[in-house]
Amino acid sequence: MCGIAGVASFHPIGDRLYDGVHHLEYRGYDSCGVAFLNHNHIEVRKDVGTVDEVDSKETIRHLVSNVGIAHTRWATHGKVTKENAHPHLSCRADFAVVHNGIIANYRVLRDELLKKGHRFTSETDTEVIAHLIEQGFLDCGDVERAWVNALAALDGSYALAMISIHEPQRIFCARHESPLIIGVGSESNYVGSDFNAFIEQTKNTVILEDGEYGIVSKDSFSVKSLRSGEVLEKAITVVPWDSELSRKGGYPHYMLKEIHEQPQAVRNALAIASEQINAVADTMEAAQRVRLLGVGTTYYVALLGQYLFATLAEMDVPAVSSDEFRYLDCSDAHSLILAVSQSGETYDTAMSLRHAKERGAKTAAIVNVVGSSIARMVDQVVLQGSGPEVCVVSTKAALAQMILLARLALEMGRRRGTVSPTKWSECEAALAALPGEIETLVNEKSGLIRAAAYRHAHVHNWLFLGRGVYYPIALESALKMKEVTYLHAEGMPGGFLKHGTLSLVDDQLYTLVFVPPPAAGELHALTMSSVEEVKARGGFVFGFIFDGHEDIFDERLVLTPTHELTAPFLPLVAAQLLAYFTATALKRNVDKPRSLAKSVTVA
Ligand code: F6R
Fold first, then answer.
1. What pTM value is reported for the model?
2. Tens of pLDDT along 552-577?
3. Helix (H) or strand (E) holding 53
4. pLDDT attached to residue 242
5. Which of 20, 78, 274, 582 has the maximal Cβ count within 10 Å?
6. Catalytic residue positions?
7. Predicted pLDDT at 534
8. For residues 512, 516, 522 and 523, what is the CA-based torsion angle, rounded to 10 degrees?
């Protein structure tokens, strides 16, 4: 995730470009830069570091220009270097672009442009866009046509802003699955990833949609259809937010914002090139022993992976909690240890990897933070590209990791013949539909979940039950509830309950049951028998269910049925929201719960 700001004005823009990216730093902060029109050429100032660090070296604040774009980066393609920082220029420096998102077909586009003589100076996917526009301009002599043609050639997600010496008064902008908005000011107009880019200047905004592009100049703006070129009437939305609130994109807490960002986090995980998944699958195939590693939430992610490898690929891939790994480690040169870590800095996970490496094992990791210790120490890394996760409590990063493990398990199943071509296509379609399903759930069910959370905020003890793949979902959901509400919540397999814990059940202990869709057959039936066991002892049962006809529950949240591969992720998102709203009902410190830190770098 990265931040984009742009200004076209009758007045000097340095201060406002600086403020724009500074306020967007929560979206990414490993490097930043600006491009602006300086007489008849484009000047770029950029470097590695925070906006303040780059400003002190490169002077953003005092630049003299009336049109410019700026960017703060969260690296996905290419290391954190000055060359990879945005903006990126075309060969002749006629065009400069800033980008948020992932261009899935950038390798193909780059190869074509290389054949046409373009020279690349960075490792990023973004740079192809600048060259593509330049090539289009050389072919047709018209900036707008070159811009539209370039957008049509892009596959993937993007929010983009571009300036050109051939249209020196204008900023071109567009979006596809990444947000971008226009700010309408007085004697100035703006573009931004969100309202923070210009919130101190104007509250009047125009929200771009997929399939639209904008042209912004100091005294006007227009939005056009990408398909027809027709000018579109766009309403101006007045944002009633103060700038502190809007840093969280209008959400009261980062946790809620990050829950809402999950559709995009899933899209980003799905946009990661298959070659990267296949490379890890090759190592898995060659290994005699594979272990999944994580701790806290990432242990539960790994445990979910264990179920996916067993059910999709008939592979025995145990998950191990990295704080215990060293006592269980039997790895050797034929082993692969696949770790999962949001921060890439967690001591327990890093130490376990080191332990396994010393025994000669191969190592791989799914990591969110580019350039982190774990990303650097493993033999193979998959960068999940979920963007910065600010809330201490992990939500979007964990879900994206689950999606990547699902992709890997599917690939292993395909290779081992347990996933037929038909099943493969079905699962791919189910994964592609998931972002939309999460959006619907969050939009339509948040109110119900909030009401339930406020109603039950007095409950001190929760039991979260799930069976099969819903068991790690129950564990992770219980952890969310514990860490953010400070209430006791215990995740447990449904079948385990009767072997002891059932004695706790009374009218004070509330049970949340993760019920699979009825189509899951035995898994559904056995889960329902756990519900009966609790009900028979007078316990209150809250069901997260997919079938509205089931009425044994004291309370139900009915979710929209979907494919068996993706169904477990819907109650997970619902449980994140339940934990969040319970915490707000109890006035907890949601983004920084007591005693917890985002990356735990101690043993
Ligand atoms: C819980 C949570 C933690 C982390 C754990 C590992 O919401 O975030 O349990 O999952 O500390 O951290 P990473 O993923 O950074 O290795």
1. 0.78
2. 999 999 999 999 999 999 999 999 99
3. helix 51-58
4. 64
5. 20
6. 2, 598
7. 96
8. -60
